[in-house]
């Protein structure tokens, strides 16, 4: 079952058989880590996030917890992590806190072709959510690396986001 199938058929399944539709989303959430690494499965997780409620989002976060940094460096996984960052204040905080646990992770992700989008989304959301503490911790982790970050487009965008806020 792909994302297109979920997108096209889930609304009818939810209307006709709510219990089965809930089971489907729970199965997707329980397998979110595996699916997020798959070139097509990541779309299924993203689609489930559209249809899910807070409980389902918590299940997805639980499945992905401890893997956000690694997933941010995968093409499909980075889309899932970015969607998690954009999903809620709690989602943003969980992911940023996990990234900050490894001192090299913010810089590594900022230079990465996929990870830089996760860092950009995190900075933007922390600013919108007025979470100054995490915003400053992330910005301070990146500041010593500004010269190196200027060497690629994603890194420049991150530097510009932070410098624009000073």
TrEMBL record:
Domain of life assignment: Eukaryota
Keyword line: Repeat, RNA-binding, Translation regulation
Pfam family, one: PUF
SMART domains with a match to the protein in the record: Pumilio (SM00025)
GO BP of this protein: regulation of translation
GO cellular component, as recorded: cytoplasm
A GO molecular-function descriptor: mRNA binding
Protein name (database record): PUM-HD domain-containing protein
Domain PUM-HD: 1-166
Pumilio repeats: 27-62, 98-136
């Amino acid at each position: 079952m792909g994302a297109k199938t979920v997108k096209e058929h889930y609304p009818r399944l939810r209307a006709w058989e709510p219990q089965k539709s809930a089971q489907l989303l729970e199965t997707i959430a329980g397998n979110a880590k595996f699916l997020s690494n798959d070139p097509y499965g990541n779309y299924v997780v993203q689609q489930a996030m559209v249809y899910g409620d807070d409980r389902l989002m918590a299940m997805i976060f639980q499945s992905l917890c401890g893997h956000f940094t690694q997933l941010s460096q995968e093409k499909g996984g980075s889309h899932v992590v970015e969607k998690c960052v954009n999903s809620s204040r709690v989602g943003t905080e969980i992911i940023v806190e996990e990234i900050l646990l490894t001192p090299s992770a913010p810089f590594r992700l900022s230079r990465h072709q996929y990870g830089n989008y996760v860092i950009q989304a995190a900075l933007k959301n922390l600013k919108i959510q007025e979470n100054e503490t995490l915003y400053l911790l992330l910005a301070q982790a990146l500041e010593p690396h500004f010269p190196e970050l200027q060497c690629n487009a994603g890194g420049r965008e991150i530097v510009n986001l932070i410098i624009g806020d000073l």
